[in-house]
């Protein structure tokens, strides 16, 4: 397969390409009013933006790549998630920058620049929902639609200090959305404040609830509403981050438990899974985590790569698009990925769901870092970037594999930089998690 990506020296020149009307560099189209919400709706007067993976009637969906944009037809209808927020009264104020075909966690885009992380200038915003999180963190909109396959809402929310929510897999209609790995892809939401997140979530539920269909199946059926009363920190997930991040997350979780009137404890998530796998990248160490956590991450990667090639392999082969280095390398890996290995990895999803259900029992929420540390600087060394990505994917894979909902709360900081505290429930716990967001102030004073 021919190399698909730009020269590394070009990639190193990534910089925010802001227009005078878009100082954040967050928008592909906008910020300008593209559609008016229904008068009298509960979100009347609220501005929102949509990641440039969602169809918006009258525009082309660019998916972060100029070649994809050139081939895209003009959308004749809004994606259901976009339509749901409009039906609730919110006004659409633009389409936002995304990493190419959502196949990255960094938020850098060699074609369109890097949206500003207003909470940490000089550092990446996180991806692939980079423009959406930048628009919310920078105050351009109150709500923004993103997507989360392997952490693309959770990680940007953590890096930029906003609320982020990844629902249970399959709850929100993903039609009208450029897919990456359909059995993981979820419609997600960013907000600057907890009540706004809750209002946006109610609108998505009312107007874009998913019906049965291919690609929407979670590893297990929703458990139904649980009465949540405990927070449990996963010690092996905490081991994936440095001491400062660990201390900040533990402190924030303790304060949150006190605020919510819940007990807080610590336990080992991986011990609820199958036998540890010895050897290879998963055999201990911060980058791999415990053998069980690494097994889950590697199973996630196997499935994601095969599904990404199934979704886009024909287009990539025939179009020969220009990709940035990281995205191009991932599509090369996707082309070589084994469907048989991915099929074996799908059985691991059932293991992960069972493990999470045992860990949480009847009333607990898992607490973990939303990302492996604060947002890294633009000039992070390649080896350090690879280590960061590996640890972050190990953190995000359990919820993704289980199809579980995750709420990222802006409750921690390290040296004045935001760090998200992620609350992970079981499929079906969505409303209870979002309700927690309404009780949490967007806070944590900067360190001096």
Sheet-strand content, in percent, reads 5-15%
Overall structural class, as computed from helix and strand content, comes to alpha/beta
General shape: globular
> If you compute it from the alpha carbons, what radius of gyration comes out, rounded to the nearest whole angstrom?
20 Å
Q: What is the count of DSSP helices, taking H or I runs of 4+ residues?
A: 13
Q: In what order do the strands lie side by side in the largest sheet?
A: 1-3-2-4-6-5-10-11-9-7-8
The string of secondary-structure elements, in order, is HEEHHEHEHEEHEHHEHHHEHEEH
Largest sheet: 11 strands, mixed
Low-pLDDT segments: 1-16, 273-287, 443-448
Structure summary, number of beta strands: 11
Terminal Cα span: 51 Å
On the 0-100 scale, what is the average pLDDT? 89
Task: Tell me what you see in this structure.
With 448 residues, the chain is an alpha/beta fold. 36% of the residues lie in helices and 14% in strands. It has helices at 8-11, 66-71, 80-87, 130-137, 154-160, 194-208, 235-238, 243-260, 291-319, 325-336, 339-360, 382-402, 430-438; strands at 27-29, 47-51, 91-96, 143-148, 163-166, 186-191, 230-234, 263-267, 364-369, 406-414, 417-424. The chain has an 11-stranded mixed β-sheet with strand order 1-3-2-4-6-5-10-11-9-7-8, sandwiched between helices. The longest helix has 29 residues, at 291-319.
Task: Give a summary of the structure in a few sentences.
By secondary structure, the chain is an alpha/beta fold. It is 36% helix and 14% strand.
Give keywords.
alpha/beta; 36% helix; globular; disordered N terminus; disordered C terminus; 448 residues
């Amino acid at each position: 397969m021919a190399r698909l990506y730009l020269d590394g020296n070009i990639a190193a020149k990534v910089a925010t390409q802001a227009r005078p009307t878009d100082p954040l560099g967050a928008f592909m189209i906008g910020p300008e009013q593209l559609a008016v919400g229904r008068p009298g709706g509960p979100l009347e007067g609220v501005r929102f933006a949509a990641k440039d993976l969602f169809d918006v009637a009258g525009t082309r969906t660019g998916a972060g790549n100029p070649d994809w944009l050139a081939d895209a037809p003009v959308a004749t209808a809004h994606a259901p998630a976009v339509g749901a927020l409009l039906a609730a009264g919110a006004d659409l104020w633009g389409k936002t920058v995304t990493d190419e075909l959502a196949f990255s966690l960094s938020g850098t885009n060699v074609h369109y620049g890097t949206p500003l992380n207003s909470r940490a200038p000089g550092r990446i915003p996180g991806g692939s929902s980079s423009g959406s999180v930048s628009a919310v963190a920078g105050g351009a909109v109150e709500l923004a639609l993103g997507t989360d396959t392997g952490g693309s809402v959770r990680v940007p929310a953590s890096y930029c200090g906003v609320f982020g929510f990844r629902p249970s897999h399959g709850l929100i209609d993903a039609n009208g959305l450029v897919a990456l790995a359909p059995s993981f892809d979820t419609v997600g939401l960013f907000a600057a404040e907890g009540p706004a997140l809750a209002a946006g979530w109610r609108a998505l539920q009312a107007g874009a609830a998913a019906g049965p269909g291919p690609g929407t199946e979670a590893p297990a059926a929703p458990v139904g509403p649980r009465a949540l009363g405990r927070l449990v920190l996963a010690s092996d997930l905490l081991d994936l981050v440095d001491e400062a991040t660990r201390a900040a997350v533990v402190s924030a979780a303790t304060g949150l438990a006190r605020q919510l009137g819940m007990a807080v404890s610590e336990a080992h998530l991986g011990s609820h899974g199958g036998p540890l796998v010895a050897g290879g990248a998963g055999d201990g160490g911060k980058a791999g985590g415990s053998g069980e956590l690494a097994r889950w991450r590697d199973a996630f990667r196997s499935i994601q790569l095969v599904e990404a090639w199934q979704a886009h392999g024909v287009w990539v082969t025939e179009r020969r698009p220009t990709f940035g280095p990281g995205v191009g390398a991932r599509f090369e890996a996707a082309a070589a990925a084994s469907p048989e290995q991915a099929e074996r990895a799908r059985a691991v999803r059932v293991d992960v769901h069972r493990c999470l259900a045992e860990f949480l029992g009847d009333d607990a929420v898992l607490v973990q870092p939303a990302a492996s540390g604060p947002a890294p600087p633009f000039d992070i060394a390649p080896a350090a970037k690879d280590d960061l990505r590996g640890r972050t994917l190990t953190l995000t894979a359990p919820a993704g594999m289980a199809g579980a909902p995750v709420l990222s709360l802006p409750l921690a900081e390290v040296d004045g930089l935001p760090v998200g505290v992620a609350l992970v429930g079981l499929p079906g716990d969505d409303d209870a998690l979002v309700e927690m967001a309404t009780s949490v102030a967007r806070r944590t004073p900067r360190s001096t």
